[in-house]
Design goal:
Layout lengths: L1 E7 L7 H17 L3 E8 L12 E7 L2 H9 L1 H12 L8 E7 L7
Antiparallel strand pairs: 1-3, 1-4, 2-3
Helix pairs in contact: 1-3
């Protein structure tokens, strides 16, 4: 499994309605693509004061790398991604992405 983690350095004047619309669109896209699910999003509370410049983020789970690649090349995702980039400080530079490979099972 791959957990796709995205943190957003939103512009101070970003449009909250547009952000909500993009999140809704990404959730819908995730639900229609095979091997994709678990989309969650929300404000970064940054309780450890380690990421103050990234006030919002989302995660999305993929069954396999091929599913992440399908999502990345999906036209709807790309259009929504462009809208998201427009909300961020310095455009695409304001989007931080981690793709974490998760173990198949957890023994605990």
């Amino acid at each position: 499994m791959i957990r796709h983690c995205v943190m957003l350095r939103l512009r101070p004047d970003h449009d909250a309605v547009e952000l909500a619309a993009v999140m809704d669109g990404l959730s819908t896209a995730a639900n229609r693509l095979p091997g994709c699910g678990g989309f969650i999003h929300g404000p970064n509370r940054d309780f450890e004061a380690k990421s103050p410049g990234y006030p919002y983020g989302f995660t999305l789970d993929f069954a396999a790398e091929v599913d992440l690649r399908r999502y990345a090349s999906d036209e709807t995702h790309q259009l929504l991604g462009a809208r998201l980039v427009a909300l961020c400080v310095d455009g695409a530079e304001g989007v931080l992405v981690f793709d974490l490979e998760m173990p198949d099972t957890v023994d605990q």
